[in-house]
Amino acid sequence: MSKKATEFQRVAMSRIYRGKEIFKPLNTGWIDENVACVREWVANIFFYRKGETTIMIDAGYNYDRLAEKMGWLGIDAKSIRHILITHQDTDHVGAVEADGLGLFKKAKLYIGEIENRYLTGEVRRRVMHRLYKLPQVTINNKKQLLKDGETFKIGDIKIHAFLVPGHTWGHMVYLIDDKYLFTGDTIWFGSDGGYSFISALAESNKLAVRSLGILEQKMKKMCVKPLFITGHTGFTDNFEFAFAHKEKLCSPFKKKVHDPSAPYDAYDESDDTEENAKNGFLKAAGK
């Protein structure tokens, strides 16, 4: 499924979203000394390094340049033994689907117990206001199922998993070492702050908006102000910016919300080069 879905998105979604000023992925590079990202067209996957341990956050498309771009960052695919999955859409799990390239066959996946219901076939993923049903995803890796609010460790790395449903029913976000919040597809950053993610791709927009407000309150209650790292629109350390428009939706086809600084066609990654990947830290959203 991942090969077919990846190719469909590369061609069809490039046409659909071209000029909509929606996707603004980071190029491949390091965010800081701990977090690196790889660009796969409109999507980013991330790596968190602490001591001798490197974990991966999301697995992107079935993308044939992944190992190459990881190499730009000095990360060997064979070293990855732990992958946190925010949700099961093809641009977040393609590299670990059964028909993928097999780079991470030995990696253990961490996924929410509700999200796992898509993988078992108990529920089917729907988009375009739930009118279009996607094929079932098949993954053979060993999995550890997570509950909302669960805290666990991978080596010396502390991870809080929080359920933020709406985009999918079981979407998880991960707070790592109380410093980095990997938000997957829960927040979309425009030039003036964060919104609830793209409306046409949600299982429930009302739930997505409500969940984002709950997430904000959880972060405040924990007294943490992490670096907010999104799957498609970069990162910020500005708490107020991240939740600035949490009650509003990113609605690309109504032109109500867009980012003039986003590329015309974010599937064109010609500016994502090895030279740029090694040329200092990446810039945050809104700066």
From TrEMBL:
What Pfam families is this protein classified in? Lactamase_B
Metallo-beta-lactamase domain sequence ranges? 42-232
Q: Where is this region: Disordered?
A: 255-287
- InterPro entries assigned: Metallo-B-lactamas, NDM-1-like, RibonucZ/Hydroxyglut_hydro
Judging by the UniProt lineage, the source's domain of life is: Bacteria
Tell me where the transmembrane regions lie: none
Q: Which PANTHER family match?
A: ACYL-COENZYME A THIOESTERASE MBLAC2, METALLO-BETA-LACTAMASE DOMAIN-CONTAINING
Q: What is this protein called?
A: MBL fold metallo-hydrolase
The organism of origin for this protein = Qingrenia yutianensis
